[in-house]
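Troubleshooting: if your tokenizer reports a length mismatch, compare your output against this known-good record of 401 residues.
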Amino acid sequence: MSLPINTVAARAKLKHRREPHWHRITKGFYLGFRKMAAASEGTWVLRTTSEDNTKDTYKTLGDYQELPQHQRFDAAIAQASKLVEHIGKGGITAPKTIQDVCENYAAHLRQTKSEKAAIDVERRFKSYVLDDARLAKLEVSKLTPAHVDTWRKRLASRTVKQGMRGIKRKETGYALDKLAKLRTPSTLNRDMTPFRAALNLAFEEGWVIADFAWRGKLKPIDDADKKRDIYLDKAQRTTFIGCAPQDLALFLRGMAMLPVRPGALANLTVSDFDKRLMVLSIKVDKAGTRTIKLPQSTAALFLDTAKDKLPNAPLFSRECGLAWNKDSWKYPVKSAALAAKMPSGTTAYTLRHSVISDLVHGGLDLLTVAQISGTSVRMIERHYGHLRGDIAANALKMLAL
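Known-good structure output:
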């Protein structure tokens, strides 16, 4: 005969034993209370019985020591009931760790996106998630907001390495010991994204009951991309480019004539530009591949940079012949911006923002702007939609009677 476990007095009368005392929740599900010694607070367990009664599975719920004795049964039955509902919807109760969550997300990217995307998140997880052995081994069902908050604060306090291996000091003008800095809000948002996505996937696949542990703690920082607010008009862009060395000036001219990311422009090779059709193929970019038909004035720059180069050579290269990258252009761009007396915080990306701003303000439809920029209409509307005000006003003016 089963004995009651729903009151403190009833649990005090139970015999100490390994086998829990069971309370039936519903068909096939039982809440158990195990007390193996007089000094023990006892632990709570959920038992699931298969439909043919051939196999039982167990899920430890904890001891609820943070609660008074008289509240522990109610807390355990509430947690067990959530798990019963979770299982009924196809969720799992097998223990899955944070490492499993990360590996599952990487496998998901291999199937849905690319090997490159999977390798990138694996590198990120190894660097700042799985480097904490205790967090890596933690069951995701036991993840709490406190765990996530501690992880986020640890990540925010870590310096960002600028990846200057192979870059000589004379190319930057800066000592290597100055190249480490704390994460900016924008960088923190970017670094949190894969972990949040991995946890969300685990939730979607029924590995956990709820996303409460990280929903609030991994929320992106608002207005993190403040540098996007810096706008350079055409005169300022010309001055900015004029203060750059010749090889960098060509690269910045490309940025000032196309709404592409600096990395996408830097990864272009001569073979990506069709001289006959004047079509540029963007192949290496986080938005995927796309083609852009160039006007004659823009194509002239690309014809000049491609002249006398082999098909696999960088379309925009440094004086040494190597392709540009974020580490090689960062400090020369900073020096050029200072020399040109540009607004503080001006970067290569500022040119992209300025170009997109001109396209939107000039009346080009947002879908086309998004397509050639390699982003979504939603992102264009979010950051540049306010620039459509004058266009709308002029359109309304035409309706006047």
